[in-house]
């Protein structure tokens, strides 16, 4: 639903889009909380979730600025009721009863900033938010956007384990932006409609840990080895491309909000019993020797229904997989160590 609405938006007026995109068909009551809703990703993500007809209650939380964002978004004439919450004392209210919690909170990457720099700030934020999730909505599906995802997802898992609420089926690292980029870059190079393109992206969500499986792309394209390498590198460096293009004035906030909305929509469809909902995500996994890994995941009423295998890889992809493992292992261990040291 969300995908088709977003695809049509360039050709339809706003009023006709809303008339056609959102019927009065009944959907279950679903509460979605966005933590970090006043930020660069949070604001457009809040708007996109307001547009989603599967959401009946939208809770927007941040340490400051949320009442304004919530009031603004609440004027959009779609199904969900919107409430804004601000400051730690209101975090519990924002979370209570949530079916899906999306976490874009934290600082974005700036030019020259490493993912280690991000880790030092965002790890603590994620830890405190997940402590509250364990207390107020332990059964919610948690969609982790805050970077570095390769470390923040393991942090969340450890926090939930300590609280006795961990369910591996309900914790997701949102890697959808890697898939969105791979599809876009592939379609542009192959000169095919991007709406018809499907490409799994596996591994992690940073640099070389991002491994797009162009050998499994549909439709097929006869690319040279050089083309595949260039497309892979561009997908891996997509975030840096945006940071540099914005010249110190932001990171990939809009495309990340779009990707976050696509993944949250998939989670809601799974919860509602829609069959065969499959997206790539960074989850607890046994398909490699690492405890967390991104691959295709089938979503259902309890979150993860099945973690799907990697499928056949090209020689280039096998090399990429081998190369990414040490870095991804280190990032996972760094998150676990942080969560357990205090």
UniProtKB/TrEMBL annotation:
* One GO BP annotation of this record: tricarboxylic acid cycle
Protein's UniProt keywords contain NAD: yes
Please state what the protein is called. Malate dehydrogenase
Q: What is its EC number?
A: 1.1.1.37
Residue ranges occupied by any Lactate/malate dehydrogenase C-terminal domain in the UniProt entry:
175-338
GO CC terms, sorted: mitochondrial matrix
Source superkingdom: Eukaryota
- Family membership, please give it: Belongs to the LDH/MDH superfamily. MDH type 1 family.
Q: Which residues does the UniProt record annotate as the domain Lactate/malate dehydrogenase N-terminal?
A: 31-173
Kindly indicate whether the keyword Heme belongs to this entry: no
Task: State a single Gene Ontology molecular function.
Answer: L-malate dehydrogenase (NAD+) activity
EC class, as a word, reads: oxidoreductase
